Amino acid sequence: MRSFTLRGLTLWLPEAALKGNLERALSSGRYENHEADALLLHLRPGDRMLDLGAGLGFICALAAGVLGEDAVMGVEAGPETVKLARRNLAANGFPGVKVLKGAVVGDGTGEVEFGQRPAFWASARKGPEGWPENAEVIRVPARPIGKLLAKFAPTAISCDIEGGELEVLTLPLPGVRLVVVETHPQVYGPEGVQRITGAMLAQGFAAAEGAKKDTLVFLRG
């Protein structure tokens, strides 16, 4: 196992998971830095944050440090990544943050197919161009966004689900005032980004400070 320290948090992951640019991002502090900056800028006492695509648990831990562990919940599709997230949260003093196993979907029940890659952070559901390269197709629980919202009642959402945001964030988001999303135009093109933005604006959100590159930030209320 290797460890990296970001913003006072220590993240552990196996050597085998250090694929592509991940090691450089972790070593330099660039890992999920745009999302982290935006959340720290906009989260406020009393918020409840739902992290869609929890990964290593970094964003969940960062939010728990601001809001408390009872006010944060994550969802992660990769079975081994779920274990890593839970381990990292406990190691950083947030064992009470719940991380659900499953793929966030717009609608549906039961299980869905998920492409698990050796580079866990690039794992995804099947996109317009097919499965991610080198993906092992597995089945994981479907986690419809409507049920997640009803169960946890978040006021803030952080979303990084490798293209799945086009299906999820174009649906109603009752009770949510803040959305921080990493978009993936390489999956659905600029038209998909425009659809997400249009759906946000139609629900009364406005573009907010903190947007950088492919990370968009929306506020309402």
Q: In words, what does this structure look like?
A:
By secondary structure, this protein is an alpha/beta fold. The chain has helices at 22-28, 33-42, 58-67, 79-91, 145-152, 165-168, 185-202; strands at residues 2-6, 9-13, 49-52, 72-76, 98-101, 103-105, 111-116, 136-144, 156-159, 178-182, 206-207, 215-219. The longest helix is centred in the C-terminal third of the chain and has 18 residues, at 185-202. It starts with a strand and ends with a strand. 43% of the residues are buried.
Helix and strand arrangement:
Elements: E1 2-6, E2 9-13, H1 22-28, H2 33-42, E3 49-52, H3 58-67, E4 72-76, H4 79-91, E5 98-101, E6 103-105, E7 111-116, E8 136-144, H5 145-152, E9 156-159, H6 165-168, E10 178-182, H7 185-202, E11 206-207, E12 215-219
Parallel strand pairs: 3-4, 3-9, 4-5, 6-8, 9-10
Antiparallel strand pairs: 1-2, 7-8, 10-12, 11-12
Short description:
The protein has about 220 residues and is α/β, with parallel strands linked by helices.
Q: What distance separates the N and C termini?
A: 44 Å
- Enumerate the spans where pLDDT stays under 50 for 5 or more consecutive residues: none
Number of helices: 7
- Class based on secondary structure composition and strand pairing: alpha/beta
Oligomer: single chain
Mean pLDDT: 95
Strand runs, count: 12
Q: Spell out the helices and strands N to C.
A: EEHHEHEHEEEEHEHEHEE
- What portion of residues is helical? 25-40%
Global Rg: 16 Å
Fraction in beta strands: 25-35%
Q: How does the major sheet shape up?
A: 7 strands, mixed
Shape descriptor reads: globular
Major β-sheet strand ordering? 5-4-3-9-10-12-11
